[in-house]
């Protein structure tokens, strides 16, 4: 995570908070909400690492769109290819799994916010232990 912090700062970002938890081998950071280019910098960072999985895994090129995104109560994830018995894993910005609905089939998933706080979330859709697609979701309180 210190590499991420250094990279973001090199792009002109100011890191408000940086937390190191050596006991859990986990770090976290927060960009100031006033930073105008936060989303574009984060997007660029994710593009660099989006396909970095492992030697054995291969990212299938399935496009999925979320509408609306940002959303307040729910969003619909729409795929261009059907999936069967898939699992949607949603992570918070610290990489913790916050929701994981499974046994999903079809071309669309309605994802409900439930009690998740507003913020940036990342998702991964897997089928047969292979990643179909990854993306991000933004939940707002508007």
Per-chain topology:
Blueprint: H1 2-10, E1 17-21, E2 26-30, H2 38-49, E3 64-67, E4 74-91, E5 97-99, E6 104-112, E7 119-127, E8 130-139
Antiparallel strand pairs: 1-2, 3-4, 4-5, 4-6, 4-7, 7-8
Structure report:
The chain is mainly β. The protein folds into 2 domains: 2-49, no CATH class; 64-139, Immunoglobulin-like (Sandwich), CATH 2.60.40. It has helices at residues 2-10, 38-49; strands at 17-21, 26-30, 64-67, 74-91, 97-99, 104-112, 119-127, 130-139. The longest helix has 12 residues, at 38-49. The radius of gyration is 16 Å and the shape is globular. The two termini are 31 Å apart. The relative contact order is 0.17.
Question: What characteristics describe this protein?
Answer:
single chain, 142 residues, mainly beta, Immunoglobulin-like, 2 domains, six-stranded antiparallel β-sheet, 2 helices
What is the second-level CATH architecture of the largest domain? Sandwich
> In oligomeric terms, what are we looking at?
single chain
CATH class of the largest domain: Mainly Beta
Helix/strand class: mainly beta
Average pLDDT rating: 77
Rg for CA atoms: 16 Å
Give the termini distance in whole angstroms: 31 Å
Helical run tally: 2
List SSEs in N-to-C order: HEEHEEEEEE
